Structure formats: structure tokens, C-alpha cells
């Protein structure tokens, strides 16, 4: 059922990659090799193996935690604590886009190893992130409509006009909420199915965006032999993957998939960064992170991933929760959730000092 958003965004990223790998330029000799006292191939390989194991374990813990704690009453999706933890994880995802992925893209596409024309004449990173956010909105909207039609006999679910007031259905990731004018009364029964479909679209699109940037950062680490860079990156990525996994795990839980699909989504999230590291190790002789082709390809993918993650964090996670009935009904819970968002975003932003 979740193949539609995956197909659209996969095609989008595939086109970007194809375009990027066709762009060739001549780089200075120093742009294609790592030098310095920190470069130690054998020691770096040991650190990379440690990174694969530790990131795999922390990723699995993070994404599975919301799934296995469903039986604990305090951590069920209906409880306030679940919303607070989800807001914390959404702050992590938001900071990942703004503080890690997007700045990396700007650095890569403005590198001195790239020719002046066109890479230094136009802000490709910001432009592509903007396009990515718009495309994600399109996919998000169209996939929800298509799934709704598919599961409602070709008819989109509609809300009832209750008490003389018009209600427009706006059910999204963090709990149903209304857009437009809403008065007394409620949304009738068909909303539950539409809400579940919405949760599933959010979970799949978010997972795709996370997987793209996880492979990219894993590839960069695996190809590097700079121990001074790898050491802090291991700790930062463990922190990042655990809490990002918690955010994704919360979305998977709300999507109410069957056990096999939950396990598959958790597995793919957990193995993508280790897979990227292993791929980087395998390609370390031919892949040079400062070569023009690598800079352009990874820079474009990072910009695209950043736009997707920022959109998902703001629209499908934070906006959905804060404009939903649960948080709108409690100022105290809103304040706690705002603090959670700031803590998550602040913690992940701090990691930018090392990674």
C-alpha cells in the first residue's frame, strides 16, 4: 500500500543522482586525497567496524523502543508522555535537516574543488532543498488522496456538516485535527480509516527520507581514513540514530502495520547507516569524498534529503501534534512538548560541533 510515495520519491532521487554523476570537472590534486597526521588507514578501519556495530545496535534500540513499549500504559500512543517523546524526536529530525544535512550540502556544493561556473554562482543547496520540500508535499498529498480513494471505493472520505458549521478534514500524523472553520460536533466514523492511512503515508515518506541521508553519511564515514573525524562522528551518529529511530518508531506504531511490515521498516532503518559505512569501506580505493563527482552527487542528495526531513518534521510531526485536539486542549502539555522539541533540536544541534 505504501509503494506510491516510495516510487515517486525514489524516481526523484534517482533522477538527481543520474544528473549529478554525469557532471564532470577537473579538480586540483589536493582535492582528491586526504593528508595529515590523523590519516591512518588501519586504525580508521578498526573505528569503522566499531561504528558499524554500535550504530546498528543503537539504531535498533531507538526504532524498536516505541514498538515494544506499547504494552506499557504510560507509553501508549494515547498518553501524554508518548506525545512528549515524539516531539523530542521530531526536534532531533528537524535539527538533522537544518544543522547537519543542509550545511553539509552547502559546504560540498561551494567547495573550491568545484568549478566557479555554475556551482559558485547559484545557491543550488537551498534551491534543491526548497524543491524537495515542495515535491514531498505533492507526494504526501497525492498519496493520501490515492490511498483514500483506494480504501473507500473511489470516494474520498468527507466530513459532515454538523451544527451549521463546515469542517474540512485535515487528519495528519500526530492525531486528527481540523483546518478551516470548526464548531460544535465531531467527525464521523469514516475518519478513523482516513487517519490510519495518513499515518501510513507519513511513516513511509519519513522512512525514505531518513534512509537516503543515512546511506550518504555512512558512505562518507566509510570512505574516510581520518581518525580525528571518525571518532567524534561515531558517538554523534549513535545519539542521532537512536533518537531519530524513536521518532520513526512512533510513526510506525501509529501506522498500525502488521508485525512483518513493522519488522521490515525497523530493519531497513537500522541497517542503512552500517550498510553505507560498509559500502564506503568497499569503495574507499575508488571513492574520493573531495572529488568533483562525489561532491556534486552527495551535495545534491543531502540538499534533497534536508528539504524532505525539514518538511516532515515541521508539517507531518510537529504541526500535526501541536494543532491536534490533544495538545490544543492542554496549555500545560503544549509547554512540555515545546520544551521537548527545544531539547531535541538543541541536543542534535550541539552534535554539529563534532559531526
TrEMBL record:
Superkingdom as given in the UniProt entry: Eukaryota
Compartment list: Membrane
Signal peptide start and end residues: 1-25
Cross-referenced Pfam families: Zip
Membrane-spanning intervals of the chain: 49-69, 81-102, 122-139, 201-221, 233-253, 265-283, 295-314, 335-354
GO MF annotation, one: zinc ion transmembrane transporter activity
GO cellular component labels: plasma membrane
NCBIfam families noted in UniProt: zip
Family: Belongs to the ZIP transporter (TC 2.A.5) family.
Descriptive protein name: Fe(2+) transport protein
Amino acid at each position: 500500500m505504501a509503494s506510491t510515495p516510495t516510487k515517486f520519491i525514489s524516481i526523484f532521487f534517482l533522477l538527481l543522482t543520474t544528473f549529478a554523476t554525469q557532471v564532470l570537472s577537473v579538480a586540483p590534486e589536493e582535492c582528491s586525497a586526504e593528508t595529515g597526521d590523523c590519516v591512518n588507514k588501519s586504525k580508521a578501519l578498526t573505528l569503522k567496524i566499531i561504528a558499524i556495530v554500535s550504530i546498528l545496535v543503537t539504531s535498533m534500540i531507538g526504532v524498536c523502543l516505541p514498538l515494544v513499549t506499547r504494552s506499557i500504559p504510560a507509553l501508549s500512543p494515547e498518553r501524554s508522555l508518548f506525545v512528549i517523546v515524539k516531539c523530542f524526536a521530531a526536534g532531533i529530525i528537524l535539527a538533522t535537516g537544518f544543522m547537519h544535512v543542509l550545511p553539509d550540502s552547502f559546504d560540498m556544493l561551494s567547495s573550491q574543488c568545484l568549478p566557479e561556473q555554475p556551482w559558485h554562482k547559484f545557491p543550488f543547496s537551498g534551491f534543491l532543498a526548497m524543491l524537495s520540500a515542495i515535491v514531498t508535499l505533492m507526494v504526501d498529498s497525492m498519496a493520501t488522496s490515492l490511498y483514500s480513494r483506494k480504501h473507500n471505493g473511489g470516494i474520498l472520505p468527507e466530513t459532515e456538516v454538523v451544527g451549521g458549521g463546515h469542517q474540512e478534514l485535515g487528519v495528519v500524523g500526530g492525531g486528527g485535527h481540523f483546518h478551516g472553520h470548526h464548531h460544535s460536533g465531531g467527525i464521523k466514523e469514516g475518519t478513523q480509516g482516513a487517519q490510519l492511512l495518513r499515518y501510513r503515508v507519513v511513516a513511509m515518506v519519513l522512512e525514505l527520507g531518513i534512509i537516503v541521508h543515512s546511506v550518504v553519511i555512512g558512505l562518507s564515514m566509510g570512505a574516510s581514513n581520518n581518525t580525528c573525524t571518525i571518532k567524534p562522528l561515531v558517538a554523534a551518529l549513535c545519539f542521532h540514530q537512536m533518537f531519530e529511530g524513536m521518532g520513526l518508531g512512533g510513526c510506525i506504531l501509529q501506522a498500525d502495520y502488521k508485525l512483518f511490515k513493522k519488522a521490515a521498516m525497523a530493519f531497513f532503518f537500522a541497517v542503512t547507516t552500517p550498510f553505507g559505512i560498509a559500502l564506503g569501506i568497499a569503495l574507499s580505493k575508488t571513492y574520493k569524498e573531495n572529488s568533483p563527482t562525489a561532491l556534486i552527487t552527495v551535495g545534491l542528495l543531502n540538499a534533497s534529503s534536508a528539504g524532505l526531513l525539514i518538511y516532515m518534521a515541521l508539517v507531518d510531526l510537529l504541526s500535526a501534534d501541536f494543532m491536534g485536539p490533544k495538545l490544543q486542549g492542554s496549555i500545560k502539555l503544549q509547554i512540555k512538548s515545546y520544551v521537548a522539541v527545544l531539547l531535541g533540536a538543541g541536543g542534535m544541534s550541539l552534535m554539529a560541533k563534532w559531526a
